[in-house]
Specification:
Layout: H1 2-22, E1 30-31, E2 36-38, E3 42-50, E4 57-61, E5 69-70, E6 79-85, E7 90-91, E8 93-97, E9 103-105, E10 119-125, E11 128-133, E12 147-152, E13 154-156, H2 166-187
Antiparallel strand pairs: 1-10, 2-7, 2-13, 3-6, 3-12, 4-5, 4-8, 8-9, 10-11, 11-12
Length: 188
């Protein structure tokens, strides 16, 4: 009877771990040092999605004195307005781990006390993305699911300024020449 129980327990454990391993990941996070920018002038909304951390973490928007949320008390699906911003404004986030006293940042790894990237992005559309944080020193398990949230009206990457095409300069030169000829013709 004891062997049978041991056998059944072993089989059930094997099946349960196989089922868990076979489940697809909810997010396709890529660790990133890229900066975040507001895509268009207007409001930015943060939605708390999930957490797997046992540690208590506060999320801050840099430049704001109060935390946005705590991963242990926030309800999945809760939305927070970060305010209205001009297009191109940079958004940087800080994850403060209350249990260890360490703070981790979006962006460059050199900002973090261990020089590891602690934020990863999963771009869901042109102007929205999911962000996941890792809250353990030295990069932890690098699953970036200790605190997960989404943002709307944002884009990832360097601030891009429009550069005129060569044809634009050609049309400008032709227009100026035509104005010059017309003015010269009038004066004769």
């Amino acid at each position: 009877m004891n062997r049978f129980k041991l056998f059944v327990t072993t089989v059930l454990m094997f099946l349960s771990t196989s089922a868990i391993a076979a489940q697809p990941r909810e997010y396709d996070f890529t660790p990133s040092t890229e900066k975040l920018y507001v895509a268009t002038a207007g409001e930015v909304i943060l939605t708390f999605l999930s957490k797997t951390a046992a540690y208590s973490n506060d999320l801050y928007l840099q430049g704001m004195p109060d935390s946005i949320l705590n991963n242990q008390t926030a309800t999945p699906g809760a939305q927070y307005s970060l305010g209205s911003f001009q297009a191109g404004a940079e958004l940087a986030f800080t994850l403060f781990v209350k249990n260890t006293g360490f703070a981790y940042y979006t962006g460059n790894a050199s900002l973090n006390p261990d020089n590891f990237i602690h934020a990863a992005y999963d771009i869901t559309s042109g102007q929205s993305l999911n962000i996941g944080f890792e809250d353990l020193f030295n990069g932890g398990d690098k699953d970036y699911d200790d605190l997960v949230f989404s943002l709307t009206n944002v884009r990832v990457g360097s601030l891009v300024t429009a550069v005129p095409e060569p044809e634009t300069y050609g049309m400008l030169a032709a227009g100026l020449l035509m104005i010059g000829f017309a003015k010269r013709r009038k004066t004769k």
